[in-house]
Design goal:
Largest sheet: none
Order of helices and strands: HHHHH
Strand content: under 5%
Number of helices: 5
Number of domains: 1
Helix content: over 70%
Length: 146
């Protein structure tokens, strides 16, 4: 188990993810003067920790294994798929959840059809994805080359 946690590629992926998650409530407070600790474990927000993680993975693998390696190519393809999903599919699901919650609120005022609201913050804007990607690349590059 110790070998896993001491693996530099693991560390180069974990550190940007952790810092991205920790920064979400701080950035939210700076932007909106609202401190929301739930953002520590949320799937949405600025920066995208998913993008940070997969771009950190691709960067670390590229540095360790080389840009011509199969692992690097697979890591880059994984990063593209995850970032597309975050900014495309999951963002569309967020928008649909927001609209459905609004429809339910307006149509069933006083008589909710469900106690549970749909989660609205599950996707990312393209800006959040790009910031997360840069975040992951820079931190992983620094970690792997220090």
């Amino acid at each position: 188990m110790n070998e896993f946690f001491s693996n530099r590629v693991f560390q180069a992926v974990f550190i940007p993810w952790l810092l991205a998650q920790i920064s979400k409530p701080i950035i939210e407070y700076i932007r909106r003067r609202r401190f929301d600790m739930r953002l520590l474990v949320s799937a949405g927000g600025l920066p995208s920790s998913h993008s940070a993680s997969v771009c950190a993975l691709a960067t670390a693998v590229g540095i360790q294994e080389g840009a011509a390696s199969t692992l690097f190519v697979m890591s880059v393809l994984l990063a593209i798929i995850v970032m597309y999903d975050a900014a495309g599919v999951r963002r569309a699901a967020s928008i649909q959840a927001r609209i459905l919650n609004q429809i339910i609120d307006e149509l069933f005022q006083g008589h909710p059809i469900s106690e549970t609201r749909l989660r609205e913050l599950i996707g990312h804007t393209p800006f959040e994805v790009v910031v997360g990607a840069i975040w992951g690349i820079v931190i992983a590059w620094w970690w792997m080359t220090r």
